[in-house]
Write a structure and sequence with these properties.
With about 150 residues, the chain is mostly beta strands. About 0% of the residues lie in helices and about 40% in strands. A hairpin with a 2-residue loop joins strand 1 and strand 2. It is rod-shaped, with a radius of gyration of 33 Å.
Length: about 150
């Protein structure tokens, strides 16, 4: 038990305090032990607002056409967003010829710029997104045909 020296009316006492259990504590004062009732101080109400959010379950049928549902792999020549983010720059346009591994877009995700590379060589057929657009993970960024 922690031991303290207290002074009351110019007289010094040695006091030991035990653990507070429920609303009482064992106090030893000059060799005599007392069971003392303890009242917790009044706590002020928190000024921090509590935000209650409700989860919304998305119906898979309501997913936009340019977004692939989770777990579905890209079709041949489709370039999907690896993470949700913003299309910062499209490096190619419809009709351009690209090589496998060539950067075709820049996506900002989690405050980092990520270059998106073409998985195949071919001709850019469709770009369903535009610069500055917010996209979800697995969104189709562009389609490359052969």
């Amino acid at each position: 038990m922690p031991e303290y020296k207290i002074t009351v009316n110019d007289r010094t006492y040695t006091v030991s305090l035990g653990r507070i259990l429920d609303d009482s504590v064992a106090v030893t004062l000059d060799g005599r032990t007392y069971k003392v009732k303890v009242e917790a101080p009044m706590r002020k109400a928190s000024k921090t607002p509590v935000i209650k959010r409700h989860r919304q379950v998305v119906n898979a049928a309501d997913v936009p056409d340019r977004t692939s549902p989770p777990g579905i792999t890209a079709g041949k020549g489709e370039i999907l967003a690896p993470l949700p983010g913003i299309i910062l720059k499209l490096l190619v346009k419809t009709g351009d010829t690209v090589d496998e591994g060539q950067p075709v877009a820049v996506v900002e995700a989690m405050k980092m710029e990520n270059e998106i590379e073409s998985p195949v060589s071919g001709k850019v057929g469709e770009i369903p997104v535009s610069e500055g657009e917010n996209i979800l993970e697995n969104a189709v960024i562009m389609k490359i045909g052969r």
